[in-house]
Amino acid sequence: MKPVAEFSWLLSFDDADERTANERARGVAALLNGLKPEGMVEAVPAARSVLVEGSPSFDSGILVGLDTASFGGPAPAAAALEIRARLDGEDLPEVSEALGFSVEAFGDALLGASYTVGFLGFAPGFPYLYGLPERLRRPRRRTPRLSVPAGSLAMAGPYIGIYPASMPGGWNLLGSVEAVLFDPGRNPPALFSPGDTVRFRR
Questions:
Q1: Global model pTM greater than 0.70
Q2: Which domains does the chain have, with CATH numbers?
């Protein structure tokens, strides 16, 4: 545990496997958000860490040991989401060929997997999804695009992600979805939450 700002602390998890570290981070965040200790504002999980934001009345002593203990706490409350997707991404033919698949076979394998939202980041509502089989992985593009369309379904390394708005990006574009990922007028604003399971359907 280390302080990163006034009334903010970072808990980091050093498991060799990132997905295991993320599961621990989500578990600790769920525990803290469920307990709602006095003065805590929120606990936000990331790939290998939890950012805990508090106020002057928050006792940071309750965080001691949470980043090193063997944690078996409650899993975050999760929704099972089914997202309709068009596999029409600009990079899909290149990615499929590089991995030795036909476009159809790659698409079938992509849609056949189940994904878990590890964390949100990069842009409001952008989900980092674990669960992409190793045989389907490709690194991010060497040259990012200046503009990626909103709703683009994309892949980089072990992650599947969806761009919530038009923005620059360097992930491989596999397709598109029509779901609104972030709406400030919605409660909660983000469509995805850490721990949600996701399947894509044509």
A1: yes
A2: 2-63 (3.30.1360.40), 80-201 (2.40.100.10)
